[in-house]
Amino acid sequence: MNYYESVVIDYLRADRAIFVNTECCIQLNQADNPDSSGPHWYCDAVASDFRNKCIFLCEISYGKQLTTLTARVKDWHEHWQKVRVALTRDSFLPAEWDVRPWLFVPESLVPVLLRKLGQIAGQDGTLHFTPRITPLEMVQPWKYRSWNRVGEDEKPVSVPDTMKV
Asked: Distance between CA 162 and CA 160 in Å, rounded?
């Protein structure tokens, strides 16, 4: 776990309605060993938001080109239904809840991320999910109440409205 992952995890946990499983294995094919069963990922965190009945696949990145992050999101997009089944089967999360990636990147890289999400969506312009984007600058511990963070501060205009909620 890198430094910013722990900062983001603290930020998520500060909202008492969100429960977090860090380094959670998402394994598409049911088997004893994910290393031999096919596609799988260790998600930085899976956050269950009981207030909004939503499951977030949280990924944290500050790499200049966001290459690893966008590869992960592309893989999820390509296997979305199996990802949802795996979360229900292995983590016993409610199948009826929404599932969304929650991506944490530096504010300066939000335009890069949006461009890459557009490339993943392809010619029809649709993703199987609506990612939530939060700039890393918003998760600094002095910017929220650590004992009861509810919601988020106003996000910068660089984050589209559909990705703020």
From this structure: 6
Q: What angle do CA 64, 66, 70 make, to 5 degrees?
A: 170
Bridge partners of 70, per DSSP, are none
Check which CATH number belongs to the domain holding 90 and give it: 3.40.1350
Residue 164 and residue 101: Cα distance in Å, rounded?
Answer: 12
Q: Whole-model pTM?
A: 0.91
* Residue 152 to residue 86: CA distance in whole angstroms: 29
d(CA 94, CA 85): 10
Domain count, the chain: 1
Query: What are the CA-CA distances from residue 59 to residues 107, 129, 148 (Å)?
Result: 15, 15, 22
Domain residues for the domain of 105 are 3-163
62 contacts 108 by C-beta, under 8 angstroms: no
Per-residue pLDDT reduced to its tens digit, 6-23: 999 999 999 999 999 999
